[in-house]
């Protein structure tokens, strides 16, 4: 007897996004959060990148975030600006929105979808067996679930209790952060400089409200040492020669450039996501985004296993796909931290890289890495589309992303291929067959594609070529589980069908 199908430890962006995904698939979810109240003062991360916005768009949720955020050309590599305005996306910008607001919107959506959130509930231990996981809480109570997912941050209790190693590189510098008011701020909304004794940034968050960051490379502070306004003021004066009239702090914090990643993302019925699985210096604002994308990769897979539609082995593809993504984030943040150093050799290297960024291919390569739009998961086959995110093509009266609002797979028939009906019938309860014609200028170069619930392409029939239907059956079985009864009616959807964020026809 279980209390819920999945317990999620942690109500940050990763845990809440995972709760939304699981509820969309009909999984009963309980989120346990150690804090008794939602964070409203600690702004933490400050932006959503292109791929995260596309993912929210695929679930019909993006408008909520666009209403509360501000588009900015704020993508950079170690402070070197990367213009993303010509990237192939509907959202070629950074959406400036505080993490506290992201959490509020995701919590609101999770509640609408029926997820339960229990605050003041701290995980103290767990045991697992072949049938599930028993989670022990600090207050002495217990919760029984089929699976436990640790989304409980860089010092994850779930990861520690699961005995999962967290190897990586230790901190080599000290960074201070403060959300403060400034009496004499810089003229620019985004102001970053490297000086003799370190580097600093001043980011405008609103009227008279700024984020101030300092980086010092001559010492490593204890991460638990308290941060005061005077600590931050002293560091800023040391580096910048002024404190810009700093006062009235809302939040102060310290971090380093330690970069660590869980050796494995799964231990039986226990999984890790977000900061519980990987930590790094917050260069380029990739942490929150990587965690939310972890959740979208894991959610539909875990739901399929919970419902018995797919074998347990499907969960192993979560690590196979997401572990290399986070490993690359750790590497690029190490590189960015190195480029922030203030010696003459690093300055020369920055000058060279700045010149190279003027070459479009270099700029777009770095921008795609930071925004995760170049992520390609390993798939059987050689077609370049396989494993990549599906572009949001115009389909006459609809868009590709609107097909994924309910987190179901979609078989998009762009060339009128008659055999597809017969092939897909065994998966009619898990995939929508959509026939459409791309609008002018939206040609994909394919007659048909199978799109996974997370928006990545799993099968391609190239235009003018004979479709490999055996490969389609293999892809359907791999990602959606074995075929069911063949007497189910294929759900043929027009591309213009729209759903709201609950999956209801709009």
Automatic annotation (TrEMBL):
Domain FAD-binding: 3-333
Cofactors: FAD
Keyword Flavoprotein: yes
Taxonomy, superkingdom: Bacteria
GO molecular function: FAD binding; oxidoreductase activity, acting on paired donors, with incorporation or reduction of molecular oxygen, NAD(P)H as one donor, and incorporation of one atom of oxygen
Alphabetical UniProt keywords: FAD, Flavoprotein
One Pfam family here: FAD_binding_3
PANTHER family: BINDING MONOOXYGENASE, PUTATIVE (JCVI)-RELATED, TRK SYSTEM POTASSIUM UPTAKE PROTEIN
Protein name: 3-(3-hydroxy-phenyl)propionate hydroxylase
Annotated organism of origin: Nonomuraea pusilla
């Amino acid at each position: 007897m279980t209390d819920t199908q999945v317990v999620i430890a942690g109500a940050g962006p990763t845990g809440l996004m995972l709760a939304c995904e699981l509820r969309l698939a009909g999984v009963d979810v309980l989120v346990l959060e150690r804090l008794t109240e939602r964070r409203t003062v600690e702004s933490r991360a400050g932006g959503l990148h292109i791929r995260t916005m596309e993912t929210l768009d695929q679930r019909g949720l993006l408008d909520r975030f666009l209403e509360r955020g501000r588009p900015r050309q704020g993508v950079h590599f170690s402070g070197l600006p990367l213009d993303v305005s010509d990237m192939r996306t509907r959202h070629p910008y950074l959406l400036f929105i505080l993490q506290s607001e992201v959490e509020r919107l995701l919590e609101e959506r999770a509640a609408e979808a029926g997820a339960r959130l229990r605050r003041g509930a701290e995980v103290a231990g767990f045991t697992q067996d072949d049938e599930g996981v028993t989670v022990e809480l600090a207050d002495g109570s217990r919760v029984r679930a089929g699976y436990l997912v640790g989304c409980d941050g860089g010092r994850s209790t779930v990861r520690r209790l699961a005995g999962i190693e967290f190897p990586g590189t230790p901190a080599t510098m000290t960074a201070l952060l403060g959300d403060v008011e400034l009496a004499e701020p810089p003229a620019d909304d985004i102001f970053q400089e490297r000086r003799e004794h370190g580097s600093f940034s001043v980011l405008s968050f609103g009227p008279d409200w700024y984020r101030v960051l300092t980086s010092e490379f001559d010492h490593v502070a204890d991460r638990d040492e308290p941060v005061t306004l005077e600590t931050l003021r002293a560091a800023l004066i040391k580096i910048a020669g002024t404190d810009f009239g700093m006062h009235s702090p809302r939040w102060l914090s310290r971090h380093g450039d330690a970069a660590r990643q869980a050796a494995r993302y799964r231990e039986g019925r226990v999984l890790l996501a977000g900061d519980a699985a990987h930590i790094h210096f917050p260069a380029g604002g990739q942490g929150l985004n990587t965690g939310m994308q972890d959740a979208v990769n894991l959610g539909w897979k875990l739901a399929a296993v919970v419902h018995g539609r797919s074998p347990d082995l499907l969960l192993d593809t979560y690590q196979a796909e997401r572990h290399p993504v986070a490993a690359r984030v750790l590497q690029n943040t190490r590189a960015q931290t190195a480029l922030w150093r203030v010696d003459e050799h690093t300055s020369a290297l920055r000058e060279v890289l700045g010149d190279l960024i003027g070459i479009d291919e270099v700029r777009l390569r770095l921008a795609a890495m930071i925004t995760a739009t170049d992520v390609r998961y390993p798939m059987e086959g050689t077609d370049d589309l396989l494993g990549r995110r599906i572009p949001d093509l115009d389909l006459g009266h609809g868009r590709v992303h609107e097909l994924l609002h309910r987190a179901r797979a979609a078989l998009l028939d762009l060339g009128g291929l008659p055999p597809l009906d017969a092939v897909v019938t065994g998966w009619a309860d898990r995939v929508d067959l959509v026939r459409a014609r791309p609008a002018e200028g939206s040609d994909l170069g394919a007659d048909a594609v199978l799109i996974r619930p997370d928006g990545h392409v799993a099968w391609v029939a190239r235009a003018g070529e004979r479709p490999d239907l055996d490969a389609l059956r293999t892809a359907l079985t791999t990602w959606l589980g074995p075929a069911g009864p063949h007497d189910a009616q294929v759900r043929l959807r027009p591309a213009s069908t729209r759903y709201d964020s609950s999956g209801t026809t709009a």
